[in-house]
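SEQUENCE, STRUCTURE TOKENS:
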Amino acid sequence: MILSWSRDIFLRFFLDAHIKNFLRGHVQAFESWHSVPRVVLYDNLKSAVLERKGQAIRFNPTLLALSAHYRFEARPVAPARGNEKGRVERAIRYIRTAFFEGRTFDGLDDLNAQADAWVNGAASARRCPEDSQLSVQQAFDQEKAHLMDIPVTPFCCDEIRGVTAAKTPYVRFDLNDYSIPHTHVQRSLSVHASLHEVRILDGQQALATHPRCWNKAQQIEIEAHVQELVQHKRAARAHRDTDRLVHALPQVQDLLTEAAKRGEPLGRIAREVQELLDVHGRTQMTAAVADAISRGVAHPHAVRLALQHQRQRQRQRQQQTPPPLGVALSAQVRARDIAVRPHSLDGYDRLTQESDDASN
């Protein structure tokens, strides 16, 4: 932007010509001058003028919101009137030849820092075209008295977009993935992005603030989000194992309840009981868990002890069983077990054949 009388320049470079950067240029120019012009003249670019038919002009509503905030008049130049924007065209040529040609820089921030130094230095020290007795800086000091005061609150130029978090705790913005707390997956959220940071909100609640990434296909994470997700998965796995165990062996629920009252680690207890269940089966484990609960010891050691007692009682019963005795069976009963082998029927076939030959 360039002031009409003093020719003071505000120069800022952006990565694209998006409407938000167009507005940011206005806000930063007003903050640099600490004042606002009463009229801002525009070429008929789409960021300013959406449609023009004769004297009827349809402005970009976002630009109108900016002008209403800073109370300046947005005025487009007449079509095909290059003389109305000659000051801007000459300033662009001056910037190209005096500043940009042959300049090296490390990035956008470095380029803008060099631009500020050049504007405050060589560009401000040049002679003012309206009064050759004054420098541009001296002319601006006089012109500033005719400009309007800048509002206390700057106009918000953040890019605001609605996004949806899928099953993974990330939202996609500008082709990059930004992490969010895992508790807010599968929700509709909003992204507020400035040039330097990306904020993710759920209504009015701020969920995460990330440095903005200008690369593509990157994953920007907050370490706390990753750690919370890992802990949640571990807890979910423990609950899943416990639920599976309770479903297979309902009596273990009372055992886990008593263990929880004593502050025992439920995950380890459930894992050890599951291992015993895999080895000994449901029938023996049902009795062993009931025995441990009846003795008031809610621990896998008590279940193991109960299983050992079961095996001991089983061996004792086997040792006390009398040997089998021989039983005398009657001939009629023994005859039932005699195997009867059927004889061949070929003899009947021969008899039938002989009878047919005799009749012939």
